[in-house]
Amino acid sequence: MIQYIDNMIQDNSSINQFIRNKKVLLVGLGILGGGLATALWLLKHQTKLTITDLKSKKDLEPSLKKLKKYSSKIKFVLSKNNLSDVRKNDLIILNQAVPIINNPLVKLAQELNKPIFKDLGIFFQLIDSPLIGITGTRGKTTTTIWTYHLLKAKYSKIAIGGNNPDFPIFDFLDQFKKQDLVVLEIPCFQLELSPTKAPHLAIITNLYQDHLNRYKTMKRYARIKANIFLHQKPDDYLILNYDNAWTKYFLSLKPVSQVYFTSQKKLPKKLNGIFQAGFKVYFQENGKKFFIFDAASFVKTWGKHNLENLLRAILAAELLGLNVKQIKKQIVTLPQVKMRQEIVFQNNHLTIINDSAGTSPEAAIMALNRWVKNKNLILITGGTDKALDFNQLAKEIKKKLAAPNLILLNGSATKKLIEELEKLHYSKTYNVFENLGECLNFGFFLAQNKEKAIIAFSPAAASFEKFKNEFDRGEKFNHLVKQLATR
Q: Looking at residue 360, what DSSP letter applies?
């Protein structure tokens, strides 16, 4: 277990008391923005900063250029990591992209009892407001934003932050004032260093294959996700997905908090939580159930998969004191979440969907299932592999999509998907393109002779061979849509 110093901050509202004049080693600058944001925050708060990265000066040029005016205040150790830097510094901070498994710097920091953090660990050290922490493979961003939206009906002093470029964690920290609640999206990379604090209310949306290029096994991946609740107390809450196969594993770790469940079928009477029967949604506690609302119109507008996200948000709101009237009022004004099956263009002839945040095969299956009722669906998919299995996605594509309507963005994951499709004798030829512009151009070409066509971009894979991250990929897709649709 990584050692933390719980009493480092006497006053949690004072960032400076925690960080100023400390000698800090930042491991992993990177070029995607996360390490840069951390470095700028550390410099702002007057740390004595050393940055180390296995990448070369040339590889890191985009980030180094933005740090140029601070170069006299930073010691750079590039193209290598020195164990001596761990010994020389007071705090060790890891870029979230830096894995802890088999990492010699992390191992030495443990042996020396050096305080070592990722962004989440810093956050927990500096924030003493009650936290709602949301993790999982699919649906965590939508659940986070919708939970925040529902809770605004009761709590005027509520904040949202976490793994989202619209809510950068270090901007959040600097602007933070004491809140009634903080809703936080927590990805697995941030949970690798198990924090000694836990959210008052933790949610694990589900667990599917993801990041196996990093964790190798699903059990290791699940164990890291479980870190969100392992330090909870008996008066805290944990929300689990009753329908997900990995929930039994989480329960086997014997959480001490009060466990509630969400389900798309009727829950056993002995369990507390929220479930649906048909389109009717019920809250159940101590063997008694209470009707909340009829979700038929919601499913028609938002899709069946989003009802799962809403159930989690409603349950969190119930547990934190909202009544049914408040919840139903907020449901009417739920916001669309960016790049999660987001409609980015629509006219009488064509609808275009951006699901760039769908980085796993399960996400693409959800998108396919939602939009395939339109027989003129055109699917753009493909990207970078994370050691995932594309067999089930291939089966769903063969069952539901005509081969000419499949457009593939080339990449390591795309090659695996084609291999699976070929095993199923799906097609003799494939529409494979090297960039998004070519994919979208061909999508427009296919759509022009179809009535009320849908182009859905759901990559089912990571983005790193061609883009900074899934958000960069999604923004580029939107820009191309705007250009081509105007033309």
A: S
Report yes or no: 248 and 271 within 8 Å, Cβ to Cβ: no
The tokens for 400 are 């539901």
pTM over 0.90: no
The three-state secondary structure class of 473 is helix
What CA–CA distance (Å, rounded) separates 51 from 141? 30
Reported as a single tens digit per residue, the pLDDT across 104-127 is: 999 999 999 999 998 888 888 888
Question: For 48-204, where are the E strands, in sequence order?
Answer: 48-53, 74-78, 91-94, 116-117, 131-135, 158-162, 181-185, 201-204
Say if residues 26 and 50 touch (Cβ distance below 8 Å).
yes
Beta strand ranges found along 217-267 (DSSP E): 237-241, 258-263
> Across the chain, what does the average pLDDT equal?
91
- Determine the Cα angle at 123 with ends 242 and 111, to 5°: 95
> What does the chain come to in residues?
487
Tokens at residue 19, please?
């960080």
Contact 142, 306 (CB under 8 A): yes
Domains of the chain: 15-117 (3.40.50.720), 121-331 (3.40.1190.10), 342-486 (3.90.190.20)
Alpha-carbon 342 to chain mean position: 16
HSE (CB half, 13 Å, CA atoms) of 383? 28
The phi, psi pair for 133, rounded to 5°, reads -110, 130
Q: β-strand 116-117 against 181-185: which pairing, if any?
A: unpaired
Token readout for 129 is 């407001």
